[in-house]
Specification:
The protein has about 375 residues and is of the alpha+beta class. The chain contains 7 helices and 26 strands. Belongs to the FlgI family.
């Protein structure tokens, strides 16, 4: 009998394990990196007020935007130009709000993207240049400065009898237009403990994350404190090297759990149902009473040579009532899956608007084991 070398056996075992893993559903497991984020590793929002110049007559009307006039005069005074008491009539300047997100652990001198949005009655920011604009954080401190040429995705063109607008020409973006001037102090590597914040809070998911971390570490270092938080104590061998621990933990895979929920957006008619939605035995009938009223006035003319004859408009109204008598009562079986529920409702010819009402009625009857969230 021929024996395989240990290296060949390990390769065969690894290949077999790969086949088993490949046979599992790809969506069953998710990385902890995708399910949670480390507390303190976050972006910070910045905002500023500035001026965009160089517009081709599409800027703010200074008579209608006094803040643009005041900002323009203040800027010119800082540059040594006195315009007080004069009548400014330029249409090449627009007041804008500048927003940006300061990434976590950004260092001084690095750049970030900024978004520029018109504040007044400017028609377009195309071809404009943003002047130096300080970007402030929630504490009122300046963390970045923005300046540069504005790039917009839309455009507007008009003539005397026609006008066309594509996209939003009053919002633009400056790639790498912000320069970071101040850093936010946060020393992650010397923390004695960290907390993982779940993006979708759930008791079962937080427990599974803690169990996966403990199995990997070989000790009880992680503990779920609430549905959205997992507290992690730093083992002695990782003291002073927290980055190494987090990079190993965030690659662990966990099967997330979710509650049975139906999300409804009545404005757009969008319905999203989770895979765990279940329905008890219930009978559903869907029908509409439609009344159609059509006005078809007719013109009645007088006979030729008639004395005192006049042409009049005679009203004629047609009324049609549709009670949808062809609709039938359908029975939805107990414990049907999401696919069976959707197929059954589609068989009734139910549209999105009617489906919203049916789901709410089933929920009111107590036969729907899921939460309904109306956006």
């Amino acid at each position: 009998m021929r024996f395989l070398p240990p290296r060949a056996l390990r390769r065969i075992a690894a290949a077999a394990l790969g086949l088993l893993v490949a046979g599992e559903p790809a969506f069953a497991l998710s990385r902890i990196k995708d399910l949670a984020q480390v507390e303190g590793v976050r972006q910070n929002q910045l905002v500023g007020y500035g001026l965009v110049v160089g517009l081709n007559g599409t800027g703010d009307t200074l008579n209608n935007a006094p803040f643009t006039r005041q900002s323009l005069q203040a800027m010119l005074e800082r540059l040594g130009v006195n315009t007080r008491g004069t009548n400014l009539r330029t249409a090449n300047v627009a007041a804008v709000m500048v927003t940006a997100n300061l990434p976590a652990f950004s260092t001084q001198g690095t750049r970030l993207d900024v978004t520029v949005s018109a504040l007044g009655d400017s028609k377009s920011l195309q071809g404009g240049t943003l002047l130096v604009t300080p970007l402030l954080g929630a504490d009122g401190e300046v963390y970045a400065v923005a300046q540069g040429s504005v790039a917009i995705a839309g455009f507007a063109a008009e003539g005397e009898a026609a006008k066309i607008t594509r996209g939003v020409p009053t919002v633009g973006r400056i790639s790498n237009g912000g320069l970071i001037e101040r850093e936010i102090e946060f020393k992650l590597n010397v923390q004695k403990g960290v907390r993982l914040a779940l993006r979708n809070p759930d008791l079962t998911t937080s427990k599974r994350i803690a169990a996966a971390i403990n199995d990997f570490m070989g000790a009880d270092t992680a503990e779920p404190t609430d549905p959205s938080t997992v507290a992690l104590q730093i083992p002695p061998r990782y003291q002073g090297n927290l980055i190494r621990l987090l990079t190993e933990i965030e690659q662990l895979r966990v099967e997330p759990d979710q509650t049975a929920k139906i999300v409804i957006d009545e404005r757009s008619g969008i319905i999203v149902m989770g895979k765990d939605v279940r329905v008890s035995t219930v009978a559903v009938a869907q029908g509409n009473l439609t009344v159609t009223i059509a006005e078809q006035p007719q013109v009645s003319q007088a006979q030729p040579l008639a004395q005192g004859g006049q042409t009049v408009v005679v009203p004629r109204t047609g009324v049609k009532v549709d009670t949808d008598e062809g609709k039938k009562l359908a029975v939805v079986r107990d414990g049907v899956s999401l696919r069976e529920l959707v197929d059954g409702l589609n068989a009734l010819g139910v549209g999105p608007r009617d489906l919203i009402s049916i789901l709410q009625a089933i929920k009111a009857s107590g036969a729907l084991q899921a939460d309904i969230e109306v956006m």
